[in-house]
Design goal:
Residues 78-347 form the Fatty acid desaturase domain. The chain is an all-alpha fold. It has helices at residues 11-29, 34-70, 75-105, 130-143, 174-183, 185-191, 196-200, 206-233, 239-265, 283-292, 300-306, 313-318, 327-340, 350-363, 378-381; strands at 296-298, 347-349. Helix 2 packs antiparallel against helix 3 and helix 9 (239-265) packs across helix 14 (350-363).
Length: 383
């Protein structure tokens, strides 16, 4: 259990812990500039070209499909072009959501003054609205990370990930639900802020739900039209390969983002906290809660880029508005600070961390007792 690997800190040590991390942030922010601008604009280009290549290959596959009808010998060409097109488009969507959209919406590049990279107005290639994401993710999740009853990301209202969550018979089917959720992840994100449970229980009227869901429905309509009507229609009678390619690309993006996000907070050593823990929470306590509720991934530069640098989930939760391309270098100091204060720095390979997530999903589908995890309150931090 993670708590047994953490040294109990005095109030003074907690304050020092927070001050050291604040100082690291200040030093990093003071050096932001051309390097960071070049990086994020290269990401924009990568998104643009991978999407363009993917769509071009899917159209080429549609043409090859037409030739295939006349000559079966070119059937292999269709499959190669189609697979490469779907993969490239899926890669573009992953980069757009993870390394570009998620980080820009956090305001990481607002310092550039570029209206196309403004965190308050940026929109992304996903059915979820960026406005809802700013509320559910930027505010609620990052403010109340892993606090039960306040952080809606704990199980997303569908899954029992931690034994501290109350068990219900519905959770017996959650291994199946988790697979469906992964395949349709962008849709789950899209409706997260609608609070459909409140509507279902009669706490929200039909009128309130329609008003709240109107922007989401409009965004869903635009995305569906773009991927499943407009682009396939451009292929004329050979629309089906383009339509299926878009579907596979969205599926690849959904599953990948699901895996990365779930590895960020639902591994074996990640903890959840009661609401009382945030009462009179100091800066040092806030950092400590972010640390104990988050998990990193090892994997190098490619993993960092494809995960939107959520491979450094700990650093992201410490410094959500600092450009994510800085997290890898900041992680060295963060890890050293954690070691000095006797705090476990949770990291592992993607296979290891996601294996722990899968174990949690299966194990806690069945009744289980809450762990004895000390609450993060001042009295518990005093030696």
């Amino acid at each position: 259990m993670a708590s047994s690997r953490n040294r109990k800190l005095t109030v003074a040590e907690l304050d020092q812990f927070g001050e050291e991390l604040d100082a690291l942030r200040a030093r990093t922010v003071a050096t932001l500039g051309v390097r960071d601008a070049r990086y994020i604009r290269n990401v924009v280009k990568a998104v643009r070209y991978t999407n363009l290549i993917g769509r071009a290959l899917l159209f080429a596959a549609a043409v090859a499909g037409g030739l295939w009808l006349a000559d079966s010998a070119v059937g292999w060409l269709f499959w190669v072009l189609w697979a490469l097109g779907a993969f490239s488009l899926g890669l573009g969507k992953i980069l757009d959501n993870m390394e570009l959209g998620h980080n820009v919406i956090h305001g990481q590049y607002d310092f550039l003054g570029d209206p196309q990279l403004n965190g308050k107005t940026y929109d992304w290639d996903i059915v979820a609205t960026s406005d809802n994401w700013r509320h559910t993710h930027n505010f609620r999740h990052h403010t109340y990370t892993n606090v039960r009853g306040l952080d809606d990301d704990i199980g997303y209202g569908l899954l029992r990930i931690f034994p501290e969550q109350k068990w219900r018979p519905f959770y017996l089917v959650q291994p199946f639900v988790a697979v469906v959720f992964a395949l349709l992840f962008q849709w789950g994100i899209a409706i997260q802020d609608l609070k459909l449970g409140r509507w279902w229980s009669g706490k929200m009227t039909n009128t309130q739900l329609r008003r709240k869901s109107a922007p989401v429905v409009r965004k869903m309509g635009r995305q569906l039209a773009k991927d499943y009507v407009i682009y396939p229609a451009l292929a004329g009678p050979f629309f089906l390969p383009v339509l299926l390619g878009n579907m596979v690309a969205n599926g690849l993006r959904n599953v990948w983002t699901y895996v990365i996000i779930f590895c960020g907070h639902f591994t074996a050593n990640a903890e959840t906290f009661p609401k009382e823990c945030i009462k009179n929470e100091s800066r040092g306590h806030w950092y400590l809660r972010q640390l104990r509720g988050s998990s990193n991934l090892r994997g190098g530069f490619l993993m960092n880029v494809l995960s939107g640098n959520l491979s450094h989930q700990i650093e992201h939760h410490f410094f959500p508005d600092v450009p994510a391309n800085r997290y890898a270098e900041m992680a060295k100091e963060v890890r050293a600070i954690c070691a000095r204060y006797g705090q476990h720095y949770n990291t592992g390979t993607l296979l290891t961390q996601f294996g722990q997530v899968c174990w949690r999903i299966v194990r806690h589908a069945f009744p289980s007792r809450p762990r004895r995890v000390p609450a993060l309150v001042q009295s518990d931090a005093m030696a």
